[in-house]
Structures are given as structure tokens and as C-alpha cells.
Amino acid sequence: MTELVHHARDLPPAAAVVMTMGALHEGHASLIRAARAHAGDGPVTVTVFVNPLQFGPNEDLDRYPRTLDADLELAAAAGADRVFAPAVEEVYPGGEPQVRVTAGPMGERYEGAARPGHFDGMLTVVAKLLHLTRPRAAFFGQKDAQQLALIRRMVTDLNFPVGIVAVPTVREPDGLALSSRNRYLSAEERTRALALSRALFAGRDRLAEGPEAVRKAAREELSAAGGLAVDYLDLIDPATFTGAGPDHTGPAVLAVAAKVGTTRLIDNVPLDFPGGSPATSELGAAR
Questions:
Q1: What residue numbers bound the domain in which 78 lies?
Q2: What distance in Å separates the CA atoms of residue 78 and residue 101, rounded to the nearest whole number?
Q3: Same domain assignment for residues 157 and 209
Q4: How many CA atoms lie within 13 A of 225 on its CB side?
Q5: Tens digit of pLDDT at every position of the chain (287 positions)
Q6: Does 132 share its domain with 211?
Q7: Alpha carbon distances (Å) from 267 to 14, 58, 95, 277
């Protein structure tokens, strides 16, 4: 039986942790199953916490779905031993924290440019939850590519004693990446949203021709679609989250962000261009 825990004092160390903001879906379930397989007989903890620090003034903190009962059921079915669902006062006992983890320049590009301060809030809560859950490994989805890259950077730069494990994006049969925000899409908007994954797959199909061919194919596919407000579409070096050059080799991420109606969606596909060194930094590779 999966235990529901609200207070950190009642939380034993975890072998593996999956951090979420709730509204769990099959993508989260895949993370939990991966953590379960990795942990063996060790305890797997899922955190459910809607973190106010990573929402901007015009974002959807108040309407972000809270579905704790359903989340507990999904977590149990996927193999979690406990769900840690703290109140805001539990995570931030002194009120809004004065000292935070700063993402630095790597967190100011792409998603960081569109959502100033978002990654500082994300890294701060991830650092706190790592301290509270005390796992040996933490599992994150590849769909949030910049988040994953920054967490790896934080763990490396600040010497956190935890392994970061990436889990592939889970998609609907038609290619749409699973997201808690998909529930905001109308049927017509959902159809339009498929342009994001089509653009990514079009770029991926040109991998053998090099970075510029990948960019060109993805941009052409996205330009042909209507009804999207595109924030960015780029080929990125995941080790630094800067644009990959025309001669880039090794790991890369083809990433896109766009608004469909009032709902902002992100997606990406990981790529690996031939010619990279076997010693490529694991900050840019799954581990």
C-alpha cells in the first residue's frame, strides 16, 4: 500500500525519488516505473508539490490542477511506496525564501527568457526536496529538457550526492507529448498542437544531413502550420543550453515552445550527431 506523507519528519530516506507537481498522467507513471525498477527493494518516493516559486505573475498557479486522490492511485499502481505531498508552509517554513539557487546564464535562455525567474524557483525547490527525501537517485523526464540540463548542472556544480536519471518522453499515439497542460486544449487546439511534434520528427528525420538540415526541416514544418504563437524552435547543445553550431557533433536537443490558444506547450527530441567524442560530458547525455 502506498503511504501518503505530509510532513518531512515522517519521511524516511528514499532509494529513488520522482518529483512532480501533481495532475499525474502516464508520463509520470513511466518515471515511477523506472524508479521502481532502479530501486529494487528500496523505497520509491513521489513528491506532489505545486511550487509557487516557479510560476510568474501571469501564469497558471491558481488554476493548475490539484488531483491528489487520483495522483495517489496512479503512484500506487506504478509502484511508489509513498507520496510526499507537503503544504507550502512545510517546504518554505520561513515564508518566501530569501536565499535561493540561481540558474545563472544557462537558465536565462529559451524557457528562461520566456519565463524569467522560473528556473531559480525550480532549482530551489528541487534542492530542498532532494534534502528532504534524501534519495540515491532522482528521475526526471526528457520532455523538460532545459530543466533536466539545469538539474544535472546543479548536482554537478554543488556536489549533490545523487544520481540524475533521464526517462524518455511519453507520447500519445499521434505524437503529442503527454503534459498536465494538455487538458486545457480544446479538440481543435489539440489538433493544432500536433504541429510541434511533427516539426520535431521532421528535423529528426534529417539527422544524417547535419545540424542545419535538421533546423531547416523543423522550421519549415512548423511554418506550414497555423494557429501557433511560437516562442522558439532551435537545435541546442544540452551541456550548456546554447544553440548548437553547424559543425556540432554528439548529443543535441531539438526543442520547441509555442502557445496553442492560451496554453503554452513545450516539446523536444534528443539527437546524437555522429562524430562526437566518447568522452562527451554526461551533463549532455542520459545517465
A1: 3-167
A2: 31
A3: no
A4: 23
A5: 899 999 999 999 999 999 999 999 999 999 999 999 999 999 999 999 999 999 888 777 888 889 999 999 999 999 999 999 999 999 999 999 999 999 999 999 999 999 999 999 999 999 999 999 999 999 999 999 999 999 999 999 999 999 999 999 999 999 999 998 999 999 999 999 999 999 999 999 999 999 999 999 999 999 999 889 999 999 999 999 999 999 999 999 999 999 999 999 999 999 999 986 544 444 444 44
A6: no
A7: 29, 21, 33, 27
Residue 102 shares a structural domain with residue 41: yes
* H or E element, residue 164: strand 163-167
C-alpha cell, 204: 529528426
Q: Total structural domains in the chain?
A: 2
Same domain, 96 and 206: no
Residue 283 within a domain:
no
Please pick, among 6, 7, 25, 28, the residue that the annotation labels catalytic: 28
The pTM of the full predicted model, rounded to 2 decimals, is: 0.92
Asked if residue 286 belongs to a domain, the reply is no
> Does the annotation mark 7 as catalytic?
no
* N residues, the chain: 287
